[in-house]
Specification:
Blueprint (H helix, E strand, L loop, with lengths): L2 H9 L7 H6 L4 E2 L3 H7 L3 E2 L3 E6 L5 H15 L4 E5 L6 H5 L9 E4 L2 E3 L4 E3 L3 H14 L4 E5 L7 H5 L9 H13 L3 H4 L2 E10 L8 E3 L4 H5 L2 E11 L10 E10 L8 E7 L3 E2 L1 H12 L3 E3 L2 E3 L7 H4 L6 H6 L1 E3 L1 H10 L1 H15 L2
Parallel strand pairs: 3-9, 3-11, 4-5, 4-8, 8-9
Antiparallel strand pairs: 1-2, 6-7, 9-10, 11-12, 12-13, 13-14, 15-16, 16-17
Amino acid sequence: MSSVDEIIKKYGTGVVLSGSMVLEDKKDVIPWSPALDIILGGGVPEGSWVTLTGEPKCGKTTSALHFAAKAQQASDRNVYYLNIEGRLKPRDLEGIKGLDLDKVNIVRSYFDEGAGRGRILTAEEYLTIAENFIKNDPGCIVIIDSVSQLITEKEITGEVHEQHRAPGAKLVANFCKRVSNVLPVNKNIVIAITHQISNISGYGKAKVESGGRKIAYAVDVKLEAKRVQPWHVGSDDDAPVGQIVTWLTHSTAIVAPGQKIDSHIRYGQGIDEITEIIRLGIDTGFITKAGSWMTCSFMQDHLDVLEVDEWDKEAEKMCKVQGQEKLRNLLLDKPEWFAILDKEIKQMFGA
């Protein structure tokens, strides 16, 4: 009996794989949004640790919940949201298309009526709960919002003036070690939200990411919101309908990092996938733009969907509108057109 056979006999048939078998063991990739999928190579593979970082109010929570909805649509999954900051609002959940709220579980501190005071969860308790979900609910999505606000029992029970040397970062480091080998086996996905804070040491970058360095070793996908700007439809004097977030990849699970793209977040609705696909369609030539007029030129290769025999003026007229919002409404009414455009753009980029 060979050494490999002895190991398999002792530990089980799946404990040793050949290199070829590893390549053949394809993980499902969950799409995020048309724009983000381009820089991620198609989306996020099962079993990944994802970190979202950036300035406050840049759309990290909304983007995380949008991904959770896409994961639920791809397959039946529970979502566990650790509301560590205590700032999750009903509007954060209501506007996310496709999010199954019955399978979204919010973990939070709460007011204990019996005790007559708040039951405040410590960092130790939050991370223990998260580890329990990861180990016992394969395929689930765990959102940690945020790593930066984890506060240890020692920090909660001690005096305000007491100094503690990065106890939260040490806990997170231990948590990463405990779950990093579980995620790919159980096909969970962790989305850890971190903040960028001013570096008061006087050395290195002006802003540093909170949460400790161990996350950098655990991460499979890391996105940083580099720029956030108001998103206006029409005049800049009009109230913004949302915000445009420029994401930079520091790490991806499929393609090379270091890519940027704009994601559109519409207030009360989450990531606006249709606006993203329109912008990508214009940039790639699948949508022809002349002034304010826009034509879904990609449909000339799909006459069967249009139910016409040839691409003539009448067919072109069916695919032509004035203004981006009217084109958005057209693609809302024609989900099969959206699916065609999304597929063709992804094929162009190899995503």
